Amino acid sequence: MAASFGAALLESESALDQDLAVPEAAKASKETPGNMAVWVLIYAELFEFALFFIAFLIAKSHYPVVFSEGPLQLNTFAGTANTLVLITSSFFVARAMAAIKSGKRHECLTWLWLTLAAGSVYCGIKGWEYSWNEAAGIGARRNTFFTLYYYLTLNHLLHVLIGMCTILFVTIRTHMDIYDATNFEGLESAALYWHMIDLVWIIIFPLLYVLR
Amino acid sequence: MKFGINRLTFSWLVLLVLTVAGAFIAERVEVSTLIVILVCSTIVMKGVMVIEHLMGLRSALLGIRWAMLSYFFILPSMIALSVLFPEVLAGLTSL
Amino acid sequence: MKFESQKVAKPYFIFALVLFVGQILFGLIMGLQYVSGDFLTTYIPFNVARMVHTNLLIVWLLFGFMGASYYLVPEESDTELHSPWLAKLSFWVFAAAGVATILGYLLVPYARLAEITYNDLLPTMGREFLEQPTITKIGIVVVCLAFVYNIGMTVLKGRKTVINMVLITGLIGLSVFFLFSFYNPINLVLDKYFWWWVVHLWVEGVWELILGAVLAFVLIKVTGVDREIIEKWLYVIVALALISGLVGMGHHYFWIGPGEYWLWLGSIFSALEPVPFFMMVVFAFKVVKERRHEHGNAIATTWALGTAVMAFLGAGVWGFLHTLAPVNYYTHGSQLTAAHGHLAFFGAYAMIVMTIISYAMPIMRGRPQGNPIAAQRLERFAFWAMCLSMLGVTLALTVAGAWQIALQRLPESGEALGFMATQDKLAPVFWVREILGVVFLLGLVAYLSSFFVGATESEVDSLEAAAV
Fold first, then answer.
1. Which of C230, B41, C376 shows the shortest CA–CA distance to A13?
2. What is the pLDDT confidence band of residue A138, given thresholds at 50, 70 and 90?
3. Which of A164, C211, C259, C321 has the lowest CB atom count within 10 Å?
4. Do the domain assignments include residue A40?
5. C307: closest CA of chain A, how far (Å)
6. Which pLDDT belongs to residue C455?
7. Interface predicted TM-score (ipTM) of this complex, two decimals
């Protein structure tokens, strides 16, 4: 996180040491997708999830039996399906970015709506998984594994919902013809946030469902 | 540009294959040292693919790209180590 | 500096920083008492140290906000302050009352202090953060009245900008909500409501307006970006802060007695509270990126960006960590709360005061383009030392909190450890926190010494030449 903070403050730093270093700073930020603020957010979120993962690993080392039985009781099919859906949504949003960068607004919109559809499918599968758990008598208070499972997955689901709201917001703005091949910073920031959600799930899936 | 889109599609397909392989392991194979290392390596591969190709950080500011990539080297390594040597971690964290 | 009367801010800023040092010293004493219970305990018992630590925090922030207002309102209103004389008088009244109260805490047992100050005539003492004797509370109200009157009259006779309006709304809210500290209902649930409505309605509501206004003011000055752009952002941030904060307050009502619907209202609205803080980050970076000129006071820009980021982390991320009712059921009142409290207060409110000091102090000392480079370098070091060590303190407390929850809160049917046994287990983490606290103090010392790193004439000239 210190690294991101450092990069974030680079511009103000350079102003002190090298007088009038505007072109330098402008060039550097051009190559980085999204705006600095979204990177602060992404690192903060990744850091938060890293804390959860470490807490999970520590708990796992202390309660080996509970944590090796736990994954077997989970619905691996739902977990796998959701991984595929999220990765696909990440692909969709990357295609949307490629489309807007080459000025194809209509194509971009299609990919954005597909991203939203994938997000909804993810939520649907998650809902089904939770009800499947309930039918199997699994609840958050059963043992430490399931407490952490629900804390992690609910938190992630919440991020998916926030991400979907953000994607919906930029989709509407794309409809309103606000973004084009030269001006797409807002759209790109939303896309980066969505990728971050995918990245977190890439770790959650093996951690909760596969490794026992 | 054509190549760019192809690269996206290619990355997507590789990611799908890696995921299905991981799920297969979860269902069929008894977890061993080798499997743990394999699974954690797929996390690294998937993470790097998303960061480099889908997020498009290959040409980004070094600090930003580096921080993202190191996240996906450090965490999976920690996961592998803690799954392989749980007693050590438990010992370290018993206050 | 446009107006002579802006100078009344100077004693406010200086005294704020003096109290800040006191706050940190008492924090360190308490941090040591966490691991070694006997340390200084006959002279400064833990409860007294805690009271001094939190009271100093609130009072130095109030001094900082007052200084900030006296500095920026005349400039924004484009007129002299209504009454510089009243501002100077209220400074001395407030400073004397503050010092007397802290000495009272330290020298006399609390019950005796209550007796001496005739607390039984209008009992208001004894509640966390609001421990001040009734007479001090009345003094605070008088000072606030004089302050709001002075600022209000200045705004009325001058230009009415959005920054001024947002700021004065925040200041009036601050004063009005403090009045709740005089009401102590017998009913414990009601009592809790009124207690939450003072400090917490400040930090999650009206203080955010003050924060937004001061940040916007400094950003306009150091970046030269159009006022219209900044005002638009300020409107959105303020609206979001009030909507999310006022109902989001519900996360404090979870376990104090009212209906279950607060579990939903509090969770949903407080989950939105990070949004205005995130908007501040977007806004600050966007404005700095689109800056029209390079201000010689680069460190003030760093402080402004740093405030946005650290406030988002402390108030937004660390708040969100434990705000949802099902999570809060296990976490409330644990060390996780302390982690959030430390980073949020420092990142949002301590840092915004240092931002305006970093911008305004050099100007009041005759350096319109900021301090000399050597001083700015030292201040930059201090900035990083304080930010990183406070992040470290927060992380240590987060680990302590997670551990505490695992040992003391989660286990059911009698396996849970008792409170003191849990605290014993956490001792190594508390040591880490204490060491990082010392690093923070070093950062603060570096910060204060940066005021005394002198400037040669030529340095000042070259800085001014660079800016033209």
1. C376
2. confident
3. C259
4. no
5. 12
6. 62
7. 0.87
Residues of A in contact with C284 (CB under 8 A): 37
Distance CA(C245)–CA(C241), nearest Å, equals: 6
Contact status, residue C387 vs residue A8, Cβ threshold 8 Å:
no
SS3 for C333? coil
- Counting one residue from chain A and one from chain C, the pairs whose CB atoms sit within 8 A come to 75
pLDDT of residue A90: 93
Cβ atoms of A122 and A85 within 8 Å: the answer is yes
pLDDT band at C463 (very low <50, low <70, confident <90, very high): low
Pick from C278, C284, C298: CB nearest A15: C298
Q: Are residue A26 and residue A58 in the same domain, yes or no? A: no
Nearest in space to A114 (alpha carbons), one of A98, A100, A94, A134: A94
Q: Sort out which chain A residues have CB atoms less than 8 A from B87's CB and list them.
A: 61
What residue spans define the domains of chain B?
A: 2-92
| pLDDT for position C396 | 96
A125 and A193 both lie in a single domain: yes
Q: Show residues of chain B in contact with A58, CB under 8 Å.
A: 82, 89-90, 93
Span C247-298, pLDDT tens digits: 999 999 999 988 899 999 999 999 999 999 999 999 999 999 889 989 999 9
| Interaxial angle between packed helices A10-17 and A22-31, expressed in degrees from 0 to 180 and rounded to the nearest 10 | 160
Q: What is the CATH number of the domain that holds A87?
A: 1.20.120.80
* A197 and A93 inside one domain: yes
Q: Can you give the residue ranges of every domain in chain C?
A: 1-160
How far apart are alpha carbons C136 and A29 in whole angstroms?
52
